């Protein structure tokens, strides 16, 4: 019997894949606690800033009473507001820094009592100025009324006075003329030396 040729079927040979060696896993690095690190950093102590004592407010002498003749702007005697400078203190250490700011001023801060005294002084000055203004307005109104009345009264009296003065001047000129005429007539009536009788004078003597 001749041998029969058969088609070979698929071979089921197992292929073994090489297994990789396991790499050792590193241990996790310890995580630093930020709170503990911040606590361990040394912090410098802040030097205390000495505060200036407020200057005592000296009592001011009483202001003289306002005059009605003079009216002028009143100037306030309040001191100017001090300029403030901000001082920043920086504390830098390992792991961080702290910022501390403290305001400083050239002059001591004003106390509430000084502020209240300044406001009271300003209000008193404004009150005095308003009183002066009212008095001046009243005086101006009174003078205007008196001037108007005077104009009304003198409006008819002045022409009458002018007419009367002119009449008196005319009468004076007439009196002067009469006196001149009387003097001239008297000179004509007086006897001259020719008219005098010398013999009669001797007999009388």
Could you please describe the fold and organization of this structure?
The protein is mostly helical and 205 residues long. It is 45% helix and 10% strand. It contains 3 helices and 2 strands. It has a two-stranded antiparallel sheet. Strand 1 (84-93) and strand 2 form a beta hairpin. The longest helix has 78 residues, at 112-189. The chain is rod-shaped. It starts with 33 loop residues before the first helix and ends with a helix. 0% of the residues are buried. The model is unreliable at 85-90 and 96-103 (pLDDT under 50). Residues 22-115 are annotated as: Disordered. Residues 56-66 have a biased composition (Pro residues).
Which structural traits does this protein have?
205 residues, mainly alpha, two-stranded antiparallel ribbon, 10% strand, rod-shaped
Separation, N- and C-terminal Cα atoms: 245 Å
What's the SSE pattern? HEEHH
Q: In angstroms, what is the radius of gyration?
A: 63 Å
- Residues in β-strands, percent: 5-15%
Largest beta-sheet characterization: 2 strands, antiparallel
Strand arrangement in the largest pleated sheet:
1-2
Based on CA inertia axes, which overall geometry fits? rod-shaped
Task: State mean pLDDT (0 to 100 scale).
Answer: 66
Unreliable stretches covering 5 or more consecutive residues? 85-90, 96-103
Enumerate how many helices there are, as a single number: 3
List the topology elements:
Elements: H1 34-40, E1 84-93, E2 96-105, H2 112-189, H3 198-204
Antiparallel strand pairs: 1-2
Biased composition (Pro residues): 56-66
Region (Disordered): 22-115
